[in-house]
Amino acid sequence: MNTGVFNIPFKAMLTLSWRNLWRNYRRTLIMLAAISMAVWAMIFMTAIMRGMVDDMLHQGVANLPGHIQIHHPGFRDDPSVVNSIDAPGGELLAALNDSQTKSWTSRIKVPAVISSERDTRGISLLGVEPESENRITGIAEQVVEGRFLEGDDDRGVVIGLKLAERLETRLGKRVVIMSQDPDNNIADRGFRIVGLYKARLEALEEVNVYAARGTLQKLLKIGDQVSEIAIIDKDFRDIESLYAKIKAATPDNLEIRAWYELDSYLSSMLNVMDGFVLIWIIIIFLALSFGLVNTLMMAVFERRREIGLIQALGMRPGMIVYQILLESLLLLLIGLSIGNALALATVLPLESGLDISSVAEGLAMIGAGSVLYPNLRLDDMILANVVVIMLGTLTSILPAWHAARLDPVQAINST
Amino acid sequence: MNLFSLLKPLRAGLLLSCLAGFASPAFAAEAPTADELIRLAMNHWRGVSSYSDMTMTVHRSDWERVFSMQAWTQGEKNSLVRVTEPRKDAGNSTLILDKNMWSYSPKVNRIIKIPSSMMSKSWMGSDFSNKDISKSTDIIDQYDHTLVNTEEKEGHSYYTIQSIPHEEAAVVWGKEVVTVRDDYVMIRQEFWDQDGVLVKEMNAFEVQAMGGRTVAKRMRMHKTETPDEWTEMSVNAIDFDVDLPDSIFTLSNLRNPRK
Known about the structure:
heterodimer; A: 2 domains; elongated; B: alpha+beta; 13-stranded antiparallel sheet; globular
């Protein structure tokens, strides 16, 4: 920086910049409005998108179900009863019951056909142990009529509201479920509907039918075999240590997979989202930057005489750049504070859920529910603010550089 | 007769009608209980073999199809049906061994085992489902039977039996109501849903002596909601207690018929 009499102290520069800002308060206010809106949009929309993706991930992981699954190697290609596995025992059982596992369950999952007097539909029949199943999928909380299954040998079934509607049946009536045993013989049985559930995704209501595990094992003549073992860890983003541990305990003839391997769509969503947030913020900023450059440029043009004068008085070009950058920095900081406050004020009240059921059908297609829970993350907020400050200052260099290069004589004489 | 074993869904009533011509001692004395009616029917029907020639008419409001077919039955478990007319469908066959069912079509030259997902689909476009056709007679054990009415008409006693499926029976109906004549011919069978609404019914017509027994020549199945859509099975000729080689009820015979 400069030395000598024109080495203006920072405080004076600050005062100078602050006053310059408010000399044309209308222009400043418009600019502030633009910056705050842009920051608000960055943070608010990011929170909404994060919420939507988190919802998809949570539901996807809950529907898989579990963060880690163990199957017969052929099960995922051919989910038939032939590809069943023995109930976990020995080393695997010990690893599953270890305190590091949050919860686990084993379930039967076979294709089946359900019939009422009026209609017949294909379903995915799930044989579950009610208590541990509920810890993993929360299905019992979704039961809206009747009850969920009780115990491993409950003789009823729980079906979705939508399926009940399609079958023209209801709570308390009997339905027949038909599937095949491992020898390809038909296995069928009447079940009374003891509960109806409402899933967040309608598509699931039509497909998943819950029966007790023990009851189905008897029906399908598979002893104590199951189709899959589902395990959940505390946080689905961080399962590596548990995965490695259970993998070590799993017999070699079984296939073990983490959720991101089971559903690569979900895992790529998670990765895409981080990149997407940055791109989104930069796109909004690009639109904003034109306004910013324009405003500062106009300010420079308007103050040509003044700049020429202070240059003639001895102010170095460097100080002029300094001052104009300081002005734009002040503008950005005020805009950012208003924008952040605005975003917090709009997102926080919505965190309990935003009902968007009018577009639920479309959302269900991408696997999201009809209630949106915006997810405001500190790192997204910081990212938005840092991007605006950095790029904003960078954009201001152009007008500042322009001002510094004015010829004092020409500038003073210009009208 | 095979018709009856083919239409095993029609269970109780049909089985009873299979008994046509037999007079049971239990029957002679006094009105038998519903369970006895069913049991006797079961016992008599077992081991009976038959060969028949019949016609199936599938009627809809705007079209009608008529099939001619041959059928062989043996005991309560084995049946084979082969379509002879119209030419388009000739050779299409269905083999039932116990609860399992296979179909063969000469056009594709393939034997297909009917999977459980197909069991509720219509059998050859009729009002009978594959399940109706193939269901084994052990379903009889899965009902509680009560005699609800006895009526004298035209010199015969008509017994009306109400059959309610057990809790875990693989039956969707709330109840079935069967009317049987005292010579074991099933006159009428009704299928009621669990709300007490009549869903479909089967009626027998032209009860007469054929092949040495009294049978219903025609049986018509229709859904209550669509009275102008029905399927009728008509027996043209029938022989009972014929000597059938075991090779009839095999997959190779299904594919390559040898007479």
